[in-house]
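Forwarding the complex inputs:
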Amino acid sequence: MLGLQTQRVMQRRMDVAANNLANVSTTGFKADGLLLEEADRTAAHAEEDPREIRFVRDVGIVHYMEQGPIAMTGNPLDVALEGDGFFMVEGPNGPLFTRDGAFTLTGDGRLVTSDGRAVLSSGGAPIVLDPQGESPSIGRDGAIRVAGVEAGRIGVASFAAPGALSKVGDNLWDAQGQAQGEFGGVVLQGALEGSNVRPVVELTRLIEISRAYQSAAKIVSGADELRQRAIQQLGR
Amino acid sequence: MRALSIAASGMQAQQLNVDVISHNIANMNTTSYKRQRAEFQDMLYQNLERPGSTSSASGGVLPLGIQLGVGVRADAVGRVTEQGGIAATGNPYDIAINGRGYFQITMPSGQTGYTRAGNLAVNADGQIVTADGYPLEPAITVPAEATAIQITRDGVVEVTLAGQTDPQQIGQLEIASFINPAGLEGIGDNLFLETPASGTATTATPGSPGLGTLMQGYLELSNVNAVEEISALIVAQRAYEMNARVITAADEMLQSTTQLR
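Prediction (whole assembly, two chains):
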């Protein structure tokens, strides 16, 4: 039983490590980790012979919110965030949040993410630029200026506990009702934030997981052998 | 075991990444080529234990849930419309656009195509055409007795005729601009078509506010940076290998499971 539980948890850890490694080139991706805890259970035949059994249990996923590397791209509508914060984008039920600043314009001048969701201003409204205008410049405070005139400000939300946001896929996060605070970082134009997955850490973890899994499999087969021998000898 | 399909999605993404990088490297010397870039997104998350759900009868709430990601997917291959370098060629029919804008081309289908490749020429009828023989829009015909052609920065085309000293204006070039040039559809041959994503073309004379100017005797080079592409190739290849390593590890785990009995 203990071996089986360990194997189950190791498989989940493997899934998490695999997802981290699959996303080494995903813009603004934050690595996940599986939080484990030691659980105590008293065995069923505890009355005559109370013995503690300890096993491992997965209690939750944590998001590592460290800053990813920032790389210059040369695209005027690519923006990266330095510091804790999220761009606000339009979602089906209220705003969603992202650190992927690969924005583009639609034909009618709306600023959207690469999958077409409207980027919201600090006031929570979509940002629309003049389709005939010059290419915009974005200040370190997120203000978009076209030919020196401010045309809107990219909304950046900050959270007291960014790790408690939940991922919803497509590089988007859900605030889970957490209140937004003032963003203290910097908005960089012409740059994108890379994934913060550290391949060395993940690969080392991969080796550790597969070895732990194998030794748990040994425990299972050892227990099986023990039981088999018990049946054979007692049944005689 | 999700790890197998997750790693497969990672390998697929890196394969696409290498495809895009190799296309960029192949077009390193293509006139006015704009490099492309693959964008990736994490796929949906599976909630095994939803954060915030009740954990005990006394009303305890799980502060963290278990959300497992199921891999990566490519969501866009975008074009970086940065200005390419400009090289002198000495050919009077080579025109580079320095700044925003596209030449308009009448394609054989009657549709208007857009290009920044200014390696123009004159055909047998005296019409100014692209290297593929498609006429410029508005059409400009160079008289047969012209001895020299001058194209100004703002697109005025003048010719000097044999036996005359004063140049004569024969046309005015116009360039088109788009709110979102990255949204144009590339159809090969350095040509682009308008799409709903690019917005409609606004045409004006070169040098108008927000538009580029023309440079006769120059060509715009590709904006591919070899060093950047090669280092991106290394990163993509290593990322591919790492995902392959996950598949091996997951396979080993499955193997030890099947060997239980």
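Residues 109 and 184 of chain B are 18 Å apart (CA to CA).
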